Amino acid sequence: MLTAVLEPQPAVAPHPDIAHLAPLLGVWRGSGHGEYPTIEAFDYHEEIHFGHVGRPFLTYRQRTRHAEDGRSLHAETGYLRCAGPDRIELILAHPTGITEICEGSVDVADGGLRLELDSTHIGRTTTAKLVTALGRSIRLSGDTIDYTLRMAAAGQPKQHHLAASLRRAE
Fold first, then answer.
1. CA angle, 72 as apex, 71 and 78 as ends, to 5°?
2. Residue 158 in marked binding region
3. Angle at 64 between CA 60 and CA 70, to 5 degrees
4. Where are the domains of the chain?
5. Which cofactors is this protein said to need (predicted)?
6. CATH: 3.40.50.1450, 3.60.60.20, 3.30.1950.10, 2.40.128.20. Which one for 16-168?
7. Cα gap 69→42, rounded to integer Å
């Protein structure tokens, strides 16, 4: 019986199609604030990992914890892909039974990045909360990522839900 063992791979350069996204690579940590008409406002701590394997996409993993008691709040995992020099796609799975496909623009200026994304498809299991639309604005400047997330859910129109600021941890 053969057992496969995954050995560490040598470092590879980002694929040329995503080279302009390389400033996102690494671990980011910070704090944010959430609010929505159907819930109590809350503060949270967050960690995001952007990685790559030399293919034309970045890997993405996100986790949040409640700022007061440390309990797990949310997680997302997926991929960030380029659809052209100024177009971007974000494909995510949420453990709440939701999948999210967002598309939008990426602007590279002054050593930073700005991503504007809106959902083109929200998939959901029969037990998932009724989320009908999501939008994300992400700005990278130096060693800081600031983002906002807009959501339409539970019969509410798309509106502000989250805002956070994260610093490079590595």
1. 165
2. no
3. 150
4. 16-168
5. heme b
6. 2.40.128.20
7. 11
Whether 147 contacts 64, CB under 8 Å: no
Question: How many Cβ atoms sit within 10 Å of the Cβ of residue 27?
Answer: 15
H/E stretch holding 43 reads strand 39-51
Other CB atoms within 10 Å distance of the CB of residue 114: 15
pLDDT digits (tens, 9 = 90+) for 95-139: 999 999 999 999 998 889 999 999 999 999 999 999 999 999 999
**Under DSSP, is residue 18 helix (H, G, I), strand (E, B) or coil?**
helix
Q: Is residue 161 marked as binding?
A: yes
Give me the residues of the chain with pLDDT under 70, please.
1-10, 170
Q: How far apart are CA 162 and CA 153, in angstroms?
A: 13
